[in-house]
Amino acid sequence: MEPLCTEELKGNADVVEFCNIPPYLNLLVAASYTLQEGPVPIRVGGLHVFSVERKDENHAAVLLQELQVIDTSGVFDIKWRGSSSDLGLLPCLGQASADGSLRLYSLQEGSGVEKVSLQERVNIAVSSSMCLSLDWCPMGAKDQIALSHSDGLISVVDVGQAKTGVILSAEVHEFETWTTSYDSWDPELLYSGADDSHFCAWDLRQGFDSPVFRNRKAHRMGICSIQSNPQVENALITGSYDENIRLWDKRMMQSPVMRFELGLGGGVWRLKWHPFDEGLILAACMHNGFAVIRADGHDMQVIESYNRHASLAYGADWYKGQWGESDDEAAHQASDNSGTMRSLVATCSFYDKALHVWEPATQACNKRK
């Protein structure tokens, strides 16, 4: 399979995120992290803002237009969220930075969608250690962001007040906390996974004194990604350096419902549920490229692979609309059918600094009401 379009960043590409707020679904941000060697090593990065435009009626060709480049600290993670609080009504992008800071950017409109830009609104030093991941509290709940750190720390930052500040922080893992994420259905439940192979859940009403659960045995190596399913209340997945994806039922957390090994040296760095198909997963597998995976009942299988990148597969994300329709149509569709739909994916790889946009051959199941 060939990419629809490609771009080379000026730094090592490690994360991509499509905007999730209409009518800006065609906005894509790719971020980079580069270690500049020297007597005092410096971690630098950049945010590359693109628009993804359809070039023909069949959507068989795509134009990737770079709108803006922001030089910043090395970027480990970014996430979009819309907000009705002090952050404004336009989408907001959060950045987990190598210098230990949380940065927030508001989307500013120009003379048209193609003229939008990001403007930094918040830059707060959260920790002296690197910020490795971040997640927004689920939409409609509190304006809070959780961050994980390279020294085992987790922090929760309130971004809804006039003055942004850390409201919870504790060292909860022995080694790097690679990932933290909120439960899609419970804004008080926060997950974390680390290089100590511990998979934990925390009730934020009780702080970080004691986890709701801590699983020490299921993962044989560090945990890189945790994603709650936004369409299935009790389902979540974890990805690990041990090359396995695990599907969990949060009502029974003693052991995973199923474990699926990708193999071939592919530590599972990033996992993303499809925005409409409750069983479709996109995985970035480091040395083993990218995979589209179907989880169905107690079975999981790779149904498509993408190996056009020449370096470590790190960043991956689904387009949040329905590819083949306008963003407005996708945002307002009300259908009771369960037909199939086309999807669009953005992926990036590290040392070759490559960003690819491609369309999976796999048809997603569209059960959106």
From TrEMBL:
Q: What does the UniProt keyword field contain? A: Hydrolase, Repeat, WD repeat
- Report the superkingdom from the record: Eukaryota
Principal EC category: hydrolase
Associated pathway: Protein modification; peptidyl-diphthamide biosynthesis
| Pfam families the record matches | WD40 (PF00400)
The EC code for this enzyme is 3.1.1.97
**InterPro entries per record:** Diphthine_MTase, WD40/YVTN_repeat-like_dom_sf, WD40_repeat_dom_sf, WD40_rpt
Q: Which reaction does it catalyse?
A: diphthine methyl ester-[translation elongation factor 2] + H2O = diphthine-[translation elongation factor 2] + methanol + H(+)
Question: WD repeats at which positions?
Answer: 216-249
Family (UniProt): Belongs to the DPH7 family.
Recorded protein name is methylated diphthine methylhydrolase
Lineage in the entry?
Eukaryota, Viridiplantae, Streptophyta, Embryophyta, Bryophyta
